[in-house]
Amino acid sequence: MATPSTANAGQSVLVPILPLSDVCLFPEASLALVVTIPSVVRALEMARRTGRRILAVAQKESADSMPTTRDLHAVGTLADLAEDVLVDGGAHRIELDGLQRARIGSVVGLDTFVAEAELLAEGDPGDEWGPAVEALARYLHAHADLRSFIDQQRRSREPMAWVNLACQHLPIAATARQKLLDADAPERCVKISRGLDALLRKEQGA
């Protein structure tokens, strides 16, 4: 599966929105969900008819119902609807593959939202990537199960894939996870390298 190039940054795409509760989807990461809300099921149907692309956007507050546009964060991730299986009770079991961050511009729709979204560049993590990976390695050394899970989930050999997967699965608050998604690759690496050692010390009671 090809991932959109950051050369696409600045371009606009018209895609249905899939609201997420208490989770973010990062580029080069995958996310499995069970969808039951009718308006979200309609967004999936729209995505299937228009190239299987959907914009996964976290809600500002956890909720079981469809949010309004004010309840959504501005930055989400354009995703490929890699799997969509109908299960018992009319629910859909889906898997999303994160492609590229995007910022919501205008939104249309009353319950099923369609966004005109601007694709965002990740940027070159450059020298910031090394300290981030070192901090991540220290954290995962103390959490072998998490490291094994992330290794199994990794589907891209891109340098940032490991960092992005960690951002998606680290035991941090939803607001902190969204701040990582809001940041481009260099800034995300800085945030990870500064925050992970502090998190590890806190967990160890140091």
Feature tags:
206 residues; 35% helix; 6 helices; globular; alpha+beta
On the 0 to 100 scale, the average pLDDT is 88
The proportion of residues forming helix, as a percent range, comes to 25-40%
Look at the helices and sheets and give the structural class: alpha+beta
> Segments where pLDDT lies below 50 for 5+ residues?
1-5
Q: Report the radius of gyration as a whole number of Å.
A: 17 Å
Summarize the biggest pleated sheet: 5 strands, mixed, barrel
Which descriptor suits the 3D outline?
A: globular
State the end-to-end distance: 43 Å
Q: What proportion of the residues form beta strands (DSSP E)? A: 25-35%
DSSP helical segment count: 6
* Sequence of strands across the biggest β-sheet: 1-3-4-5-6
> What is the string of SSEs from the N terminus onward?
EEHEEEEHHHHH
Would you report the number of β strands? 6
How would you describe this structure to a colleague?
By secondary structure, the chain is of the alpha+beta class. Helices cover 35% and strands 27% of the residues. It has six helices and six strands; from the N terminus they run E-E-H-E-E-E-E-H-H-H-H-H. Strands 1-3-4-5-6 form a five-stranded mixed β-barrel. Helix 2 packs parallel to helix 6 and helix 3 packs across helix 4 (161-169). The longest helix is centred in the last third of the chain and has 19 residues, at 185-203. It is globular. The N and C termini lie far apart (43 Å). The relative contact order is 0.19. Mean pLDDT is 88; it is low at 1-5.
